[in-house]
Amino acid sequence: MEIPCITVDKGSIISGGTLQELLTSGIEDVFVVDVDALSRNKMNFRVYESLSKYFDLVVLNFPSRLSDFIDSFIYGANLVVIPDYIPVKMLHEFMEYSPNIVMNFGRREGVAEFIKLGGRGFLSRTPVNVENITVYYIGPGELPSSIKVRDFPLDLVAEYI
């Protein structure tokens, strides 16, 4: 299984196709990488809102405040990707608001706490050996029993994930 990736930077879609191309492709789910959110903590909520009229969205924006996390859902995200270095208190607040979270798979302490709280979705460049989870895979090649994120812009966001 795979999901197409759209990259958003400076308030515009810069890769992944035009809205018209996505609509005619028949896809239902889109993975959105918000470069502005990762690099400058400036969420592109209007882009999420416009895309969410047509697709279910997984949004990689690493919110650092509860309000940005909540607003991501208000503006159309179905799942929000959070960093593995998120403070435990904030992770608890996010999980209390919504279980629709995907965590970057990295720092062992953050991942363990996320799983303990019931987290079941991960973004990863490497295989993840945890049962009953969903993995959005951004590494090379295919990974069985994962969702491959097609055209993930690792070159643009490697320093953040």
What does this structure look like?
With 161 residues, the protein is of the alpha/beta class. It is 33% helix and 28% strand. An eight-stranded parallel barrel has the order 1-3-4-5-6-7-8-9. Strand 4 (56-60), helix 4 (66-74) and strand 5 (77-82) form a beta-alpha-beta unit. The radius of gyration is 15 Å and the shape is globular. The two termini are 22 Å apart. The mean pLDDT is 91.
Task: Briefly characterize the structure.
This protein is an alpha/beta fold and 161 residues long. It is 33% helix and 28% strand.
Q: Nearest-angstrom radius of gyration? A: 15 Å
**Total number of beta strands:** 9
Main sheet summary: 8 strands, parallel, barrel
The geometry reads as globular
Give helix % range.
Answer: 25-40%
As laid out across the biggest beta sheet, the strand order is 1-3-4-5-6-7-8-9
The number of helical segments is 7
State the secondary-structure class. Answer: alpha/beta
What is the chain-wise order of helices and strands?
A: EEHEHHEHEHEHEEEH
Average predicted confidence as pLDDT: 91
The low-pLDDT segments are none
Question: Could you tell me how far the N terminus lies from the C terminus, measured between alpha carbons in angstroms?
Answer: 22 Å
